[in-house]
Design goal:
Elements: H1 2-34, E1 37-40, E2 44-50, E3 53-58, E4 61-64, E5 71-77, E6 82-86, E7 88-92, E8 98-101, H2 103-106, E9 107-109, E10 115-126, H3 129-135, H4 139-155, H5 160-164, H6 168-185, E11 190-201, H7 207-276, H8 278-293
Antiparallel strand pairs: 1-4, 2-3, 2-5, 6-10, 7-8, 9-10, 10-11
Helix pairs in contact: 4-6, 7-8
Length: 321
């Protein structure tokens, strides 16, 4: 009887252990399957790989995939704007912001063989997470190297004066286009939003010489502007004086022509009268001439037919002389 009870207890214990083992296996299996649960944030996308091969891309939300090592999930922020710094690094965004210069990245050669220190920022987004995950082993390093190479290439095509002044916008645009061309060629899944030149200046060793050159160019421009201003002031005055002289000459010409025509007309009339009475005209002209020559002298006109005869001349007072 005692032996039967012992066997019964042993069987019951074995059944309990067996049941406990199955339950434990189920718990372990459940925990293992739970490791396949993953959450994708609103600004993220996830890529699922099974046995190292691409399976699908999932968006925001709670998802499940076959647990490791069968499958794996890689996530990336596809809506965030990422940033690459060339020539400097941000130590503390501040305020106040603090930066550290990286001369080996910043120093670049221009098209006219001048050296400039160029700091730039590249902003980009992930447009294809599959290409981004599979084709980029070290995404940041690869993108920074491509951005730096593109910027050096474009700066090397421009003169130093263009890089320092009016050519910045063109350089930014061409660098963005060149960088995007490179990234698309290697199917990186990256879209370049913007390239901005933060600080462009000569190296510290030659900045004084560059300032002198800039001052000389400013003086040149100022002198040219002053000369142009003087020219713009004098040319209208000279033109006005020339126009006035031409008008005065035209008026004098017209006056002299009119006077000459009047003299001709008067002479013609005199000549016509002269032809009608030559003796009378000659006498009148003689008397007018003498009156002009001797304006304040008393003059006595004697008929030549009375020459040699005694004449009574009545003066101003009525006396007979």
């Amino acid at each position: 009887m005692a032996e039967n009870d012992l066997n019964q207890n042993v069987n019951n214990f074995l059944k309990f252990v067996k049941g406990l083992g199955i339950f434990g296996v189920l718990i372990v299996l459940g925990l293992y399957l739970a490791t396949g649960i993953y959450v994708v944030q609103p600004d993220e996308q996830a890529v699922i790989l099974r046995f190292g091969k691409y399976v699908e891309t999932t968006g925001p939300g709670v998802h499940w995939h076959t647990p490791s090592p069968v499958a794996a999930v890689y996530k990336a922020k596809t809506t965030a704007v990422h940033r690459i710094e060339i020539g400097f690094r941000t130590i503390n965004p501040g305020p106040p912001a603090r930066y550290r210069d990286i001369p080996e990245e910043a120093l670049m050669l221009t098209g006219d063989e001048n050296i400039l220190s160029v700091d730039a920022i590249v902003q980009y987004k992930i447009k294809d997470i599959k290409q981004y995950i599979f084709n980029l082993k070290q995404p940041y390093k690869m993108l920074k190297d491509a951005a730096e190479a593109s910027l050096r290439q474009i700066v090397g095509k421009n003169l130093v004066e263009e890089v320092l002044t009016v050519g910045k916008e063109k350089i930014q645009r061409e660098t963005k286009d060149r960088l995007q061309e490179i990234l698309d060629k290697y199917e990186t899944g990256v879209y370049v939003l913007n390239v901005q030149l933060q600080d462009v200046q000569p190296p510290k060793e030659v900045i004084g010489a560059f300032k002198d050159v800039a001052s000389a160019k400013e003086d040149k421009i100022r002198y040219i502007n002053e000369a142009n201003g003087y020219r713009n002031d004098m040319i209208p005055k000279a033109r006005g004086e020339a126009e006035k002289a031409l008008n005065d000459a035209a008026a004098y010409k017209s006056k002299r022509i009119n006077e000459a025509q009047g003299d001709v007309a008067r002479f013609t009339k005199l000549y016509d009268k002269y032809k009608l009475g030559k003796t009378v005209t000659k006498t009148r002209m003689y008397l007018e001439t003498m009156e002009g020559i001797l304006p304040n002298v008393d003059k006595i006109i004697v008929d030549k037919n009375l020459e040699g005869k005694l004449l009574n001349i009545i003066g101003k007072e009525g006396d007979i002389k």
